[in-house]
Design brief:
Largest sheet: 7 strands, mixed
Order of helices and strands: HHHEHEHEEHEHEE
Strand order of the largest sheet: 3-2-1-4-5-7-6
Structural class: alpha/beta
Distance between the termini: 44 Å
Shape: globular
Number of strands: 7
């Protein structure tokens, strides 16, 4: 259902690049599934920032409905048109996810067990967005491309964190960064 709605809505709202729409199953959906698989939590609060067309947050919420029903999702997206899309997909798929039409910086602390993001900002900025919203034992799941090492090095100037690097199954140059124990350096 999400895939069908994505194809329909993408004509009016730029949810994904038109070029990648034909590859949306592997490029966007499967790419999000691997983030869900990287999460070691089966309950708690998952916050996806800059959700856009629902990647990875809405796809993870759809999977969690059946596989990890004790996870609660908040999708943060500042573009109200994209929020309308996210709300429609959630309704049509029966997913319980709160859609917040806000910038993450404007929200009070969300105490998330998991914060995820894809193609939103450099790692240093992402950690800055996520840190105020993490529960004490929370973790971040950030999808990053071939320059992730440079981003990690730059972020270590301002932050200390434990990390795990999971190779992407959809792009040989990409990874999922699993970050925890985040503190200002």
């Amino acid at each position: 259902m999400h895939h069908k709605l994505l194809q329909k809505w993408n004509k009016a709202i730029n949810l994904v690049s038109p070029k990648s729409l034909n590859e949306s199953w592997s490029r966007h959906i499967l790419d999000s599934v691997q983030v869900f698989q990287a999460a070691n939590s089966s309950s708690g609060h998952w916050v996806d920032i800059g959700t856009g067309g629902g990647f990875p947050g809405l796809v993870c919420a759809i999977l969690a409905t059946e596989l990890k029903p004790d996870l609660r999702f908040t999708l943060v997206e500042s573009d109200k048109r994209k929020c309308a899309f996210l709300t429609t997909v959630a309704r049509e798929t029966g997913v319980c996810a709160e859609v917040r039409p806000d910038r993450i910086e404007s929200l009070p602390p969300l105490r998330a067990n998991i914060v995820s993001a894809r193609a939103l900002a450099p790692l240093n900025a992402l950690i800055g967005y996520a840190a105020p919203h993490l529960a004490p034992d929370g973790m971040c799941l950030f999808q990053k491309g071939e320059r992730y090492r440079e981003e990690v090095e730059a972020a270590e100037a301002d932050w200390s964190f434990k990390r795990q690097v999971i190779p992407s199954i959809t792009d040989q140059d990409a990874v999922i960064l699993v970050l925890g124990e985040i503190e200002r350096a």
